[in-house]
Amino acid sequence: MTSSSILDAVGNTPVIELKRISAGLGVSGVSVFAKAEYFNPSGSVKDRAARAMLLHGIGTGQLNKDKTILDSTSGNTGIAYAMFGAALGYKVELFMPSNASAERKKLIKAYGAKVVETDPLEGSDGAYMAVMERVKGDPDKFFFPNQYDNFENVRAHYETTGVELYKQCKPTHFVAGTGTSGTFMGTSKRLKEYDSSVHIALMQPDSPFHGLEGMKHLGATIRPKIFDESIADGRVEVGTEDAYKTARRLAAEEGIFVGVSSGANVFAALELAKTLPEGSRVATILCDNGYRYMTEPLWRDV
User: Fold this and answer.
1) CA Rg value for the chain
2) Are residues 122 and 262 in the same domain?
3) Which residues pair with 200 in a beta bridge?
4) How do residues 58-74 score in pLDDT, each as one tens digit?
5) Mind giving me the DSSP string for 197-231?
6) Domain end: 143, 176, 203, which one?
7) Of 25, 80, 234, 244, which has the most beta carbons under 10 Å away?
8) Where does the pLDDT of residue 211 fall: very low under 50, low under 70, confident under 90, or very high at 90 and above?
9) For the whole model, what pTM was predicted?
């Protein structure tokens, strides 16, 4: 029997065709698919990037047992860092806005990592800036993956997510939102290489003041250096309430229990599908499970 670690459990997640929720679109012959990234071991798509960045750090000698893994997070990447840190024997310290869901903070602490809470009004940008100051103060103490600017984030999805998705459903259209933008960029680049006619749509919150936790409104925030908007062929804007309603529909109609960013991605996919000809195949990402949002309005108020 071959032994394995939690790192080997990342990826190869299933794709689910959303037949019931797409039945009332008013178009025929258009399929909507969602890649269920909550099947990753920590429960989110961020396992892929976190794993890649940490292994690259170890491989290049930038990360050793004398250093603490340090980064900012809205939650999911932090949970992944904490899980891998526990498995590999590294200390982990994470800066995150204090209004991030209680479940996310508890999960990180359960893995033995330290959480430093930052000003909720400054959001993920505030957490990022606080980490930058922390690193400057004692650079030799930390390994700072910097998920917003680390191209290993993109490469992880280019080499895995995009490959898997194309084999699983050969989409004609791909739509997803951006946090760090690693999932969007890496998957889109790979799909375009397989077939240059694949239409890439960028999902964006419809307002800078939105409730799509983990998603960035790129017009009102620090842009990740790994993001290149030129790869997008179009854009779909999504309101917070539409994302909430769609996440709840996914649970009630498809048996899929996910978070708000997944609801936003699926809403965008459905809106795009309404405009497409017969034979089109729209794919998107289910970013994480819904269990880490039970005290948030998405599920608390059901």
Assistant:
1) 18
2) no
3) 174
4) 999 999 999 999 999 98
5) T-EEEEEEESSSS---TT---GGGSPPPTT--GGG
6) 143
7) 80
8) low
9) 0.95
Give the separation between CA 265 and CA 34, rounded to whole angstroms.
Answer: 9
Tens digit of pLDDT for each residue in 241-278?
999 999 999 999 999 999 999 999 999 999 999 999 99
Tell me: do 125 and 268 sit in the same domain: no
Domain-ending residue, one of 112, 143, 174: 143
What local confidence, expressed as pLDDT, does residue 220 receive?
62
- Secondary structure (3-state) at 168: helix
Q: For residue 5, what are the contacts with CB-CB under 8 A and spacing of at least 6? A: 87
Would you state the pLDDT for residue 74? 85
pLDDT above 90 for 31: yes
Rounded CA-CA distance 205/99 in Å is: 18
> Does any domain span residue 153?
no
Percentage of the chain lying above the pLDDT 90 cut: 81
User: How is residue 163 written in tokens?
Assistant: 């490959």
Q: How far apart are the first and last CA of the chain?
A: 45
Which residues are part of the catalytic machinery? Answer: 46, 261
Range of the domain at 188: 6-44+158-300
CATH of the domain at 124: 3.40.50.1100
Is residue 61, in this structure, part of any structural domain at all?
A: yes
For 2-21, b/e burial (b = at least 16 CB within 10 A) is: eeeeebeebbebebbebeeb
Averaged over 42-51, what is the pLDDT? 98
The domain total for the chain is: 2
